[in-house]
Amino acid sequence: MGELESEKHVKYIVSIEKKKDSFEALVMEHLRLNGAYWGLTTLDLLHKISAVDPEEVIPWVMKCYDEDCGGFGGNIGHDPHLLYTLSAVQILALFDRIDVLDVEKVSGYVAGLQNEDGSFTGDIWGEIDTRFSYCAICCLSILHSLDKINVDKAVNFIVSCKNLDGGFGSIPGGESHAGQIFCCVGALAIAGSLHRVDRDLLGWWLCERQCKDGGLNGRPEKLADVCYSWWVLSSLIMIDRVHWIDKNKLTKFILNCQDKENGGISDRPDNAVDVFHTYFGVAGLSLMEYPGLKTIDPAYALPVDVVNRIFFRK
Ligand code: FPP
Ligand code: ZN
Q1: Model-level pTM?
Q2: Which of 34, 38, 139, 201 is least enclosed, having the fewest CB within 10 Å?
Q3: Which residues line ligand 1 (CB under 6 A)?
Q4: Which of 296, 261, 262 is nearest to 280 (CA)?
């Protein structure tokens, strides 16, 4: 089996930051804060967060902040959204700089997006999705502010999105999808409500995602894709069923998706690499305790030492 090309992946991630006028940077413009979170978390898992200067990252993150409402946009001047607010909080947590935030204001923004039925909208435009329930619960937990929302109602809404196959969808009745399952199981884990998950039924659905090539897919009949090494594996770990898949075969699949020359990981072998799949691959390997990587927390999607610093600092 090949090895993880750690140094090349570090170089690849650092180089994307510098190539601001590349095509990838252009199409990813509105996702900049998300992209920064994926890239920086990957560097930290590879023990190389020191390759970037926090004095450059943190002022840029704060330029994406909308002081009037308390949320973050995907880039400077963009409209605030829960997806980017979570990324901003996660990036600040990685650098241990939550202190730059007005926690009252940011947590007030997040809490203000909860609806009467416990669900969350992503922004003022009103789309409801369990992705946003996850973003809100994860973000508020990192900010020690879960008391600002009705957690019971938030949990009940997520449970109302559970399907007969044990999986979860984006809204009640929505098709089970591994990405949404991560969001629902992650939010329930953080809220201390994993007893609301049917572990055997969901574990069965999740482990059936492993394809002949060793990779995982996101739904029945779809091709394997490295990103599901994160969405599926993190969920299996949270419900304590990770031994139901073949880790060896999955590790091989991920390592086969590396660009061994220029660094980066793609969705499947021989495709073009991107920063998202580089994160998903490295994070998946971290979940499988690949040697030399920091361990990632499956619910917070941050290295375990960062999560411990948030909750157990003296
Ligand atoms: C599938 O993506 C993924 C999801 C639906 C989950 C997205 C979760 C978040 C945005 C929450 C934040 C996540 C973390 C880790 C902090 P897709 O649209 O690529 O699915 P497809 O393969 O069906 O197209
Ligand atoms: Zn993918």
Answers
A1: 0.95
A2: 201
A3: 83, 131, 134-135, 177, 179-180, 182-183, 218, 301
A4: 296
